[in-house]
Design goal:
Elements: H1 8-33, H2 36-44, H3 55-68, H4 72-90, H5 107-122
Length: 137
């Protein structure tokens, strides 16, 4: 009989990989298309536009760290912060809306946020470069 406890590290790996890969798609799009859209939104919010370049940390560097399981908790926290900023800068008008198909308008953003918070709380598990007892895992 397989213990549910023994599947915990496999579940952490699946959660980490899904979160990291999905966020990386957004990061690659920023690498290809540039961060001009984000720096414009940051400037419109009254902040220094250069802060918009932190999107590369939140959507490229942090997801790679999460994927490989290195400084996983800190990297997942960076992704969560990145999602909060994205919701604030881009999606505030949709915050209390239902989509045309009956779902929550921000379900994808909230799912990314929830997954990032979960990984930050759970750590990487044993299937990671850092290992279950590795630094910040």
């Amino acid at each position: 009989m397989v213990s549910l406890k023994s599947n915990g590290d496999s579940g952490k790996l699946i959660l980490r990989a899904a979160l990291a890969i999905m966020i990386l798609f957004h990061g690659v799009a920023k690498i290809i298309g540039g961060a001009g859209f984000i720096t414009g939104l940051v400037a419109k919010a009254g902040l220094p536009p250069a802060l918009g370049y932190l999107v590369y940390v939140g959507e490229v560097v942090a997801p790679l760290l999460v994927l490989f399981g290195v400084w996983t908790r800190a990297a997942a926290a960076v992704i969560a912060i990145n999602m909060l900023v994205a919701i604030f800068l881009v999606h505030m008008p949709q915050l209390f809306k239902i989509s045309g198909n009956g779902g929550y308008a921000l379900e994808l953003q909230v799912m990314f946020l929830a997954a990032a918070l979960s990984v930050a709380m759970l750590g990487a598990g044993k299937f990671s470069v850092g290992g279950s007892s590795g630094k910040m895992n």
